[in-house]
Specification:
Blueprint: E1 2-3, E2 11-13, H1 19-35, H2 38-44, E3 45-46, E4 50-52, E5 58-60, H3 68-71, H4 73-77, E6 78-91, E7 94-105, E8 108-109, E9 112-113, E10 117-134, E11 143-160
Antiparallel strand pairs: 1-3, 1-11, 2-10, 4-5, 6-7, 7-10, 8-9, 10-11
Length: about 160
């Protein structure tokens, strides 16, 4: 998955000293997940960006989306969701996040009807932050905009209560 702030190229690697800025961009994405902010998710995620799944397949992010369910299925499935960043680490252009998602699940999980059950899911995600040159209609100068690419998404645990 690539997170975008604008749809532009070429990509260039961010300086290693930007690790705190890179973590801030990832936190912004998690804030959008928490609040179900589809506009922010569309702004951050590149429709052509890859998702590298735990099974080893790569899928295209897709979008932009009009509904939360299409952009973040788990966000839409959790009522009263609380997303907590348990750990965030960065080195160079890589940002790793361990997060816990809690809420009342609406629907089925692995074929079992669990609608309304309180669940807790722990994810580990690794993002690669890229900076791209962008141009605005007000200026001919390029400016660097951060972008994220999820290298891995690993489902670690799901508990139903």
């Amino acid at each position: 998955m690539i997170l975008l702030l604008s749809a532009c190229t070429p990509l260039a690697q961010a300086p290693a000293s930007n690790t705190e800025a890179n973590k801030a961009v990832v936190r912004r994405a998690f804030d959008a997940f928490q609040h179900g902010d589809v506009a922010a998710l569309n702004e951050l995620f590149d429709p052509q960006g890859p998702w590298h799944t735990p099974s080893g397949t790569t899928i295209v992010q897709g979008g932009p989306y009009a509904e939360l369910k299409a952009s973040c299925g788990m966000c839409a499935a959790l009522e009263r969701r609380t997303i907590t960043i348990d750990l965030i680490l960065a080195e160079g252009d890589l940002v790793a996040v361990r997060s816990t998602w809690r809420g009342a699940y609406t629907g089925t999980f692995k074929g079992v009807a669990v609608s309304g059950m309180e669940i807790s899911v722990v994810y580990t995600n690794v993002y690669r932050v890229r900076y791209a040159m962008s141009r605005t209609s007000h200026s001919n100068r390029g400016s660097s905009e951060p972008r994220l690419r999820a290298q891995r998404r690993k489902h670690a645990r799901c508990a139903m209560r």
